[in-house]
Structures are given as structure tokens and as C-alpha cells.
Design goal:
about 450 residues, alpha+beta, binds flavin-adenine dinucleotide, five-stranded antiparallel beta sheet, globular, 14 helices
Length: about 450
């Protein structure tokens, strides 16, 4: 018996199995970040759990690198790998809603667009990302930050169970009652512990929200950031949103003469009763004159897809850096004011997400996601179209990050971090790191799942 061949894999798998030269291979090797240009030996487009098991076994038995891809949004490109095996879950995107018990089960390749449209039918939602093309699994397994986090917790806090294919090719359930150590680890530990073929979530009554983007003058940025720091500390938990640097795009609600100017944006989301929305956003409206806005009642999925057009899949080069922040000090704000307005292109930005409220009510050791005392998760997101501009854009992100790092925690949100941040992984998990290593030794002692922000066994 030799090592299993790709031909044997093709016989076992119901989905497509693509190798270099096959029609569709070029498309199948692409991920969201256009900077990533890798050539896998084989891409398995799984359509069910058995396909995932076969692909995991094929990689393990042949000693091949294995990358797992859900929504393909990983900025470091963890959804692909040179020469090895890619499990592409984009053919497994079903979402089933149980409105009576307020639960939804999403397959491992579902995006937030798939999820939100299914749950919105029933006036329900849970915390997801702010761009609808991001994968449910990748985002949730790393934590999951979004508009609803202050009210109902991180995405991983709403995870009830997951079906996991582990490195030995078994299909297991991870929940509070079954394999609880695995369940603890996948709520923040990212793709280190296996392939999630489905994830079950707790839902909450959220249908239409009141919110959208507002733009302020750069001269008012200091005032708005200071206001945000104070306001968000005890704002009602149905209030979500974040400040962002933004070169004004050519959108109809922005005066034409301001297009192309750098402004401070605030994207607000009031998820309480819609008729209270105007009052809820009034403090923000009153803080400084608003240059332009597109604020009002809208379906929750509409806000979650409002920025999709700014970052089309495969069209931009991405380089990001991230920090957790406990206190947004005057010095930190000064660093933001120095570097933010230098944002080089309309697609690049910096967001300061609030992660207090319900996120703080989970103790630091209750899930792998450890930063439960941090108030903010900052991301400096470099996203630009022309590879010829890589150096300048990466430098903007690095300079900005260096300037804010002294006023931040040692760790950053794992899902916003770069490929060159592996030295910070231990800091990301603080006191939970050793327990993660122990769980990794139980479920993946040979580190088959290493194409990720890796927790080495
Ligand atoms: C435009 C954009 C917007 C974003 N917005 C947000 C946001 O609002 N909030 C937020 O928290 N994060 C956000 N992120 C970060 C996002 O959470 C991470 O990039 C996340 O890893 C993406 O998951 P994915 O499934 O799309 O990516 P992939 O590249 O497919 O996977 C990312 C990682 O997760 C693993 N993975 C994916 N699917 C599975 C699975 N089914 N089982 C096991 N492992 C899996 C992969 O192996 C890989 O390590 C954003 C990213 C981008 C590019």
C-alpha cells in the first residue's frame, strides 16, 4: 500500500478535485487578498463532511501541508498554500434557521451574507462581521467582532456547537456537553483544531436597525474621538459602531466637491427599537457638524453589506495590523490624529471597534478569546489596488501601528493580524495560551492544521 493518490481522492470525493492544469484550477487557487499568489497541489471543493474527511486524510497520509478555506478573507492568505492540499468549503454554504429556539446552523463555507439573509427572514440575527463576504467560520473561530457585539457578545460567544473534522479524520461535535475542551479552544483559537463543517449559533431579535455612515471634518476628529471614548464606555448596549478614517468615495450622499478628501467617518448601528434610533444617535450628531451622512432605518443585512463594494474579492492588495486597547488615552488619540489622516487610498482605513458591554461579561478563561478587559479592537487595514504601491501602503500601516502600539495591549485580534505577527500569538491568548497548547496536543499533536496563526503543539 503506497500513499493515497489524487486519483483515489477523486474517487472518494463528491465535490470537484482540481490540480494544476485542470479547468477551473486558476480560479480555485485565488483568495481575497490579491497579494497572495500560491499554487496548491490539489484543491478539494468539498460538498459534504465525507469530502472534508477524505481531504484531511489525504493530506495527513501524504505528509502534505493543509489549508482550510471558508470565506477566503484571511489577510495573510491562510486559505491557500503552495504545493499542499486546500479544502475549499465554498460549496457548503447552507444555513438552516430554527426560529422557535432562536438557533441557526451554518455550513462551514457560509458567508455572513448567507447567514444574515437566512436569519433576517425571521427577524433574528447574531454578531457577524461588517462586510458580508467574510466567512462565518473563519470569523467566529477567531472571535468575531461586529455591530452587535456590545449587546450580545462576540460571534464565538453565540456559538452553541460545531461539527468538527479533526486531524485524525474523525467527525466530532464540540459543545458545552461534548468535547468541551475542543469547544473552549475553537471559541477564539481559530483554525488550529480542525475543520468546522457546521456551526450552530444563538440568535437574537434584530430586524431593522437605525444607522449608517456619518462623516466629520478632519479638524473635528480630535473632538469626535474623545467623545467616542467617553460615550461608548456606558452607551446603551444596543449601540454599536466605530470611527474610521476614510477618503470620501464618490457616493451620491457626499457633496461632490468633497469627494477624494480625507474625513473622519463614524459608522453607527442602533439595534434597539428603530423608533428610538434618532434619539440614540443624537449625541453623535451633536458632537460636531456632520459633512455628509447616510443614516436611517434599514434592514440589518443592508448595513452588513454596505461596504462590500469598497473591497471586492481578489481586487486589492491587503496588509493589516491590529491591537487591543484598554484605555484610549490622549496619547493614543494623538497618534491616531498624526497617522490616520495620511491614509493613502480610498479603500484603506482604520477602525476602532468597541468590545465592551456583553463581551466583558464573559470571563477571560471561559473561551480561548482572552482579551475580555480590553475596550477596543483596533485594525489598521491597508487595502490598495496596485501592487506597484505595496511598499508605500505597507509602510503606512507599519508606521501607524508603531505609533499606537505603546498605548495598546501586547496582543491584537487574531483575525486582523498579519502573517508577520506570529511572534505575538502567545500574547493574544495571555493566560489561555498553555491550555490551548494542551488542547492542540490532544486533537492535532502533529500540527496538521498549521496554515493559520499557529498554536504549536
Ligand atoms: C474585508 C474584510 C472585513 C472583515 N471584517 C471583519 C469584521 O467585521 N469582524 C471580524 O471579526 N473580522 C473581520 N475580518 C477578519 C476576518 O474575521 C478574518 O479574515 C477571518 O479569518 C476570515 O474568515 P474566512 O472564513 O472568510 O477566511 P479564510 O481565509 O477562508 O479562513 C481564515 C482562517 O480561518 C480558518 N477557517 C476558515 N473556515 C474554516 C472552517 N470551516 N473550519 C476551520 N477553519 C476555518 C482558515 O483555515 C484560516 O486559518 C474581516 C476581513 C476582511 C478581509
Amino acid at each position: 500500500m503506497g500513499n493515497p493518490t489524487v486519483e483515489q481522492l477523486r474517487e472518494q470525493v463528491r465535490g470537484e478535485v482540481l490540480t494544476p492544469g485542470d479547468a477551473g484550477y486558476e480560479e480555485a487557487r485565488k483568495v481575497f487578498n490579491a497579494m497572495i499568489d500560491r499554487h496548491p497541489g490539489v484543491v478539494v471543493r468539498a460538498v459534504n463532511t465525507d469530502d472534508v474527511v477524505a481531504a484531511v486524510n489525504h493530506a495527513r497520509e501524504n505528509g502534505l501541508d493543509l489549508a482550510v478555506r471558508g470565506g477566503a478573507h484571511s489577510v495573510p492568505g491562510f486559505g491557500t498554500v503552495d504545493d499542499g492540499v486546500v479544502i475549499d468549503l465554498s460549496g457548503m454554504r447552507g444555513v438552516r434557521v430554527d426560529p422557535t429556539n432562536r438557533r441557526a446552523r451554518a455550513e462551514g463555507g457560509a458567508t455572513w451574507a448567507d447567514f444574515n439573509s437566512a436569519t433576517h427572514e425571521f427577524g433574528l440575527a447574531t454578531t457577524g462581521g461588517v462586510v458580508s463576504t467574510t466567512g462565518v467560520a473563519g470569523l467566529t473561530l477567531g472571535g468575531g467582532i461586529g455591530y452587535l457585539a456590545r449587546g450580545v457578545g462576540l460571534s464565538c460567544d453565540n456559538l452553541v456547537s460545531a461539527e468538527m473534522v479533526t486531524a485524525d479524520g474523525r467527525s466530532l461535535v464540540a459543545s458545552e456537553h461534548e468535547n468541551p475542551d475542543l469547544f473552549w479552544a475553537i471559541r477564539g483559537g481559530s483554525g488550529n483544531f480542525g475543520v468546522a463543517t457546521s456551526l450552530e449559533f444563538q440568535l437574537h431579535p434584530v430586524s431593522d436597525i437605525y444607522g449608517g455612515p456619518m462623516f466629520f471634518e478632519l479638524d473635528d476628529a480630535d473632538t469626535v474621538l474623545r467623545f467616542y471614548r467617553e460615550f461608548i464606555a456606558d452607551a446603551p448596549e444596543q449601540f454599536g459602531g466605530f470611527p474610521a478614517w476614510q477618503i470620501a468615495p464618490p457616493l451620491p450622499f457626499i457633496p461632490e466637491e468633497r469627494h477624494g478628501e480625507t474625513l473622519l467617518a463614524f459608522v453607527a448601528c442602533w439595534a434597539g427599537p428603530v423608533d428610538q434610533g434618532e434619539r440614540a444617535l443624537k449625541p453623535l450628531h451633536d458632537v460636531a457638524p456632520v459633512v455628509a451622512e447616510h443614516v436611517g432605518p434599514m434592514p440589518y443585512p443592508a448595513l452588513n453589506s454596505a461596504f462590500d463594494a469598497l473591497c471586492p474579492p481578489g481586487a486589492l492588495q491587503h496588509y493589516w495590523k491590529a491591537n487591543f486597547v484598554t484605555e484610549l488615552t490622549d496619547e493614543a488619540i494623538a497618534a491616531h490624529l498624526e497617522h490616520g489622516p495620511k491614509v493613502p487610498v480610498v479603500t484603506s482605513t482604520m477602525h476602532i471597534y468597541p468590545i465592551n458591554g456583553a463581551c466583558h461579561r464573559v470571563s477571560s478563561d471561559a473561551t480561548a478569546f482572552a482579551y475580555r478587559n480590553a475596550n477596543f479592537a483596533t485594525v489598521i487595514a491597508g487595502m490598495w489596488p496596485d501592487p506597484g504601491d505595496n511598499e508605500a501602503n505597507i509602510q503606512w500601516v507599519r508606521d501607524y501601528y508603531q505609533a499606537t502600539a505603546p498605548f495598546s495591549e501586547a496582543g491584537g485580534y487574531i483575525n486582523f493580524m498579519s502573517g508577520d505577527d506570529q511572534s505575538r500569538i502567545q500574547a493574544n491568548y495571555g493566560g489561555n495560551y498553555q491550555r490551548l497548547v494542551d488542547v492542540k496536543r490532544t486533537y492535532d499533536p502533529d500540527n496538521l492544521f498549521h496554515v493559520n496563526q499557529n498554536i504549536a503543539p
